[in-house]
Write a structure and sequence with these properties.
With 370 residues, the chain is α/β, with parallel strands linked by helices. It has 13 helices and 13 strands. The longest helix has 17 residues. The radius of gyration is 21 Å and the shape is globular.
Length: 370
């Protein structure tokens, strides 16, 4: 009896979305270490740098668009590879074909809050995502919150949705005693950190306003700053202008996307991670920060309480005074920092890629049976 043969959309390895790359890089090696042996084929994408044990099939000719790849190239590659199931790791999947599809949907903010995506062709993307979701035999998502949102957005029954929380890489650990990481230019010790692309739903203006208040009231050390590690999707300039208007031009530091080694160093050196987002399907930076021993202050919204649990401080996303007070407490109270560090480290151990892989394999088997 042959092993279950899974075709992974190989373009995920080079996705422009860092979160998708992190997802596939954590999931696939974990799948290959499960007791239940499987074959994994990368359908298209790069031939080099794949995890040991993954085979590769080249991309066949197809129209040079994402829709063209999903509609023509991916199913053709799946046929060449003779796979039992196709795993599309990020929102889009073949709209036709006989091979069952497992589709990962990390969140449906674009469907539930389209006002956050005021792009001229966003309706087309949303239509493609919807068709992909309805076509999939099984949907995988990162949290119970997202499962409820997917059901509400697309009417997909719960038995077709598998919740597989994300894991955290073994590289995200506290810094060794006596080790100091040299911060990037413009980053001063004791900073607050936010990780993730900068756009409206991340709600970062609330932290900027909270820091402005805290700096004026001298409840945080000078020169406390907010360091933003992520691609600017249109809000970075406004945040810097808020700081400049308050005569605090050093308050906001936009680094853009950073390498993984730099990101780990930032987590380890930060006084706290601030995560004021209004909507997340999971919130991977929350567990990465906890795994590095960094206190987390986050919004009480969407999936974030489900991920953070009681290991950090949860604040209403619109409560500027609450954010200011929480930041001041974490920075000034060593007992609070030590408690949050210990609780975060313990909480992070619950999020493993092995657990993600086991639940994802269950989704593959359900799709094949269906």
């Amino acid at each position: 009896m042959r092993k279950l043969r899974i075709g992974i959309d190989g373009r995920a390895w080079t996705s422009p979305a860092a979160g998708v790359r992190r997802y596939i890089s954590g999931l696939v090696p974990a799948l290959l270490t499960l007791d239940d042996p499987i074959d994994i084929v990368s359908l298209g994408g790069p031939a080099d740098g794949l995890p040991r044990g993954v085979t590769w099939v080249d991309e066949p000719p197809h129209p040079p668009t994402n829709l063209g790849w999903s509609s023509v190239g991916l199913p053709w590659a799946a046929g060449r590879a003779d796979v039992d199931v196709i795993h599309a790791p990020a929102y889009t999947a073949p709209l036709t074909g006989r091979v069952p599809i497992v589709l990962t949907i990390h969140d449906v903010s674009y469907e539930r809050r389209p006002d956050w995506y005021p792009y001229r062709r966003d309706w087309l993307r949303r239509a493609f995502y919807r068709r992909s979701a309805l076509r999939a035999s099984q949907v995988v998502t990162d949290s119970n919150f997202s499962a409820r949102e997917i059901e509400a957005a697309y009417g997909i029954p719960t038995d077709r949705i598998t919740v597989a929380p994300l894991g955290v890489s073994h590289l995200f650990v506290p810094k060794a005693s006596g080790v100091h990481h040299e911060p990037p230019p413009g980053v001063h010790p004791g900073f607050l950190l936010h990780v993730g692309d900068l756009h409206a739903r991340r709600n970062l203006d609330v932290v900027v306003r909270a820091l402005i208040d805290a700096r004026r009231q001298s409840t945080v050390p000078f020169p406390m700053s907010l360091v933003l590690a992520g691609v600017d999707r249109g809000t970075g300039d406004a945040l810097e202008q808020m700081a400049a208007a308050a005569s605090l031009p050093d308050l906001v530091v936009c680094l853009g996307q950073v390498r993984e080694d730099c990101l780990i160093a930032l987590y380890r050196e930060a006084a706290a991670l601030v995560y004021p987002s209004r909507y997340e399907g999971f919130g991977l930076p929350v567990i990465e920060a906890m795994a590095c021993g960094t206190p987390v202050i986050a919004s009480r919204a969407a999936s974030i309480p489900e991920v953070l649990g009681e290991a950090g401080i949860l604040i209403d996303p619109d409560d500027v005074a609450g954010w200011s007070a929480a930041i001041a407490t974490v920075l000034s109270d060593e007992t609070t920092r030590a408690r949050m560090r210990a609780a975060g480290l313990a909480r992070a151990t619950e999020f493993t890629w092995a657990r993600t892989a086991r639940r994802t394999l269950e989704a593959y088997k359900s799709a094949v049976k269906r």
